[in-house]
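FORM 12-B: Structure-to-Sequence Request
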């Protein structure tokens, strides 16, 4: 199933994302600042302390989420230099393993390909794919990351044992704020960021089912 990667080219969506991210960031900053002031005045054993601390955590989560919205909106203006694709994947797997040690990741990054992109962007895109696979897959099941070279393109495949995309989101999975994950706070931007990155590089993205596995594949121009 081909996944759309052209959301970042829609200038209306990009302008909307930037405006919403800017305004909501201002609101959440006020909430976070005043909650910090309240916490400094409250004794830790106060019943109100836990309530205000939860407000503060929610505001911090909102700031992090808005940073991802901003990243989606800026994909088209990403700076590009030649980078080793395998090294970025290895960095992403290491970071993911440190944050989610209970999820095994099998890595086969041997393409030797160079892509024209921003190294931090690329690492974070792979992290988004790993997190998406983690959220979808049963506990303890492995995630497999494979790379290959196909002529003038490099192939990156992330495989998990999850159920795949729900039918109602399969055609719009890379649109911002779309998610098939019930109960996952902050969902709906991961694949949008990936799709925006792939679209900026004039690549393609697909999701397919193989037996009991879901495979998300990126095909990117290699230099």
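FORM 12-B RESPONSE
SEQUENCE OUT:
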């Amino acid at each position: 199933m081909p996944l759309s990667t052209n959301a970042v080219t829609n200038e209306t969506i990009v302008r909307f994302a930037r405006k919403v991210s800017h305004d909501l960031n201002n609101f959440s900053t006020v909430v976070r600042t005043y909650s910090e002031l309240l916490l400094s005045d409250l004794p830790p054993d106060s019943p109100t302390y836990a309530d205000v601390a939860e407000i503060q955590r929610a505001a911090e989560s909102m700031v992090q989420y808005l940073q991802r919205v901003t990243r989606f909106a800026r994909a088209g203006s990403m700076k590009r230099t030649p980078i080793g694709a395998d090294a970025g994947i290895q960095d992403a797997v290491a970071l993911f393993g440190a944050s989610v040690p209970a999820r095994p990741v099998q890595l086969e990054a041997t393409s030797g390909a160079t892509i024209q992109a921003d190294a931090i962007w690329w690492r974070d895109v792979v992290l988004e794919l790993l997190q998406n696979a983690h959220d979808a897959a049963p506990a303890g099941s492995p995630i497999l990351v494979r790379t290959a070279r196909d002529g003038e393109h490099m192939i990156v495949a992330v495989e998990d044992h999850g159920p795949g995309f729900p039918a109602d989101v399969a055609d719009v999975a890379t649109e911002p704020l779309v998610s098939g994950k019930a109960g996952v706070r902050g969902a709906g931007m991961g694949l949008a960021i990936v799709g925006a990155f792939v679209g900026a590089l004039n690549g393609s993205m697909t999701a397919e089912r193989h037996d009991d596995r879901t495979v998300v594949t990126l095909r990117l121009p290699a230099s």
